[in-house]
Amino acid sequence: MPAFVVVGMQWGDEGKGKVVDYVTRYADVVVRHNGGNNAGHTLMVGGKQTILHLIPSGILHEGKICIIGNGTVLDPAVLLEEVDAVRAAGARLEGRLFISETAHIIMPYHKLFDKAQEKFRGKNRLGTTGRGIGPAYADKAERFGIRLGDLLDTAVFKAKLANLLEYKNLMLEKLFDEPPLCFDTVCDEYLGYADRLRPFAADIVPMVHEALRAGRQVVCEGAQGTMLDLDHGTFPYVTSSTTLSAGACSGIGLGPRDIKGVIGIVKAYTTRVGEGPFPTELLNSSGEFLREKGREYGATTGRPRRCGWLDCVQLRRAAMVNGVTHLVLTKPDVLGSLDTIKICTAYELDGRKTLEFPGQLSKLERVIPLYEEMPGWTEDISTCSSWTGLPAAARAYFKRIEELIGAPVAIVSVGPGREQTIECVDPFA
Ligand code: IMP
Q: Which residues pair with 105 in a beta bridge?
């Protein structure tokens, strides 16, 4: 059975965690394929909130296999904290959680470099999460990275660390005017993590392919969103991984033909954290309304998210680069009580109307969003359990989104709880 990929279609924080948790009922295996603890997936199950940063959002379903793929970067301290939190929430992890031994490890110098680089950029800072994500992926590309498998082999780890610290300390001291890191301290700390991570380490490639061959349903869970993709996002205001559906291929070890469908998650309005262009941003009371009603504060950093109207120019580009087959709409309940709702359907660029999302940042910074206005609804839809139970104005808004993006809405999420989910079409059919 082929795999399905769940991707964020905006700038992250679309509600992928809730959606992956929901669709895990139809899955046997859930694999996270990119990013690190820059992500924050909030799950609300049985009235209890669990925030995950690395462990796949299927973990609260007893018996389902959860895998962290090679395309991720792991901060062992954060990962182990999460292991403890998930265990405390009652989940058993033995024989259920597996971590690719070729995933790269976030080291203390990555976090120091992340902060020092942001300081160096000054007013051009990216607004990173400060978790060392960029420097860890840079080390992977530069072939300086340490992988989980290296960490688990004490002799290999010590040799790599000794060699790398010489280089990294030179950079810390000479370039960033920071004190050097002590080999013994880092080594002891990380070898302590190694002992606790060893039971979860695995070669995940045969594991995932065996599941597919056996007809099991595999769901690949992306982190962040399309516009934060290193290649197709709003570079340089992006993260350092492949956040697109294609990231599931390299970040797990799948071939394109192994993927049957791509489920694109779309928040009913747009949010963004950190710096960078955001054409439909609302710097007024409407933006404030969305932030407060939608509780738009980062699950990882607590930063207030920038808010704006839905941007279908951006979403059409996201549908293209991901090969989206179905949409899941999240948080339309937040829009309730607005008299009218705006959707951006085109941009004006240098006096000309365009339907294309500019790849070049300087052009994107100049676009003026062109809006269509639709009637809002006054009803609270957070208790609706069927498509027909939704107000006509809400259905019209969702249908217009389908039309503008060119993909069917499979699921509408009307609140954070598992039960607050309306299934319209089976996305796995
Ligand atoms: P980094 O991933 O920490 O390097 O941050 C790069 C950019 O991506 C910053 O603008 C972050 O705010 C943004 N970012 C990273 N992870 C997330 C996420 O999970 N949700 C939303 N934005 C994110």
A: 74
Pair 380, 248 in one domain:
yes
Question: What does the alpha-carbon distance between residue 58 and residue 50 come to, in Å, rounded to a whole number?
Answer: 12
Query: How far away, in angstroms, is 369 Cα from ligand 1 center?
Result: 24
DSSP-assigned letters across all residues of 165-220: HHHHHHIIIIIT--PPPPHHHHHHHHHHHHHHHGGGEE-HHHHHHHHHHTT--EEE
**Are 207 and 129 contained in the same domain?**
no
Supply the residues annotated as catalytic: 13, 41
**Do 276 and 130 lie in a common domain?**
no
* 235 C-alpha to ligand 1 centroid (Å): 12
Last residue of a domain, one of 182, 199, 216: 199
Q: Whose CA is nearest to atom 11 of ligand 1?
A: 128
Summarised one tens digit per residue, pLDDT across range 80-136 is 999 999 998 889 999 999 999 999 999 999 999 999 999 999 999 999 999 999 999
Q: Which structural domain, as residue segments, surrounds residue 296?
A: 3-93+203-423
Query: Is residue 333 domain-shared with residue 251, that is, in the same domain?
Result: yes
Torsion of CA 153, 154, 157, 159, to 10 degrees: -120
H helix or E strand, kind and range, residue 271: strand 270-272
Q: Which residue has the tokens 């959606």?
A: 19
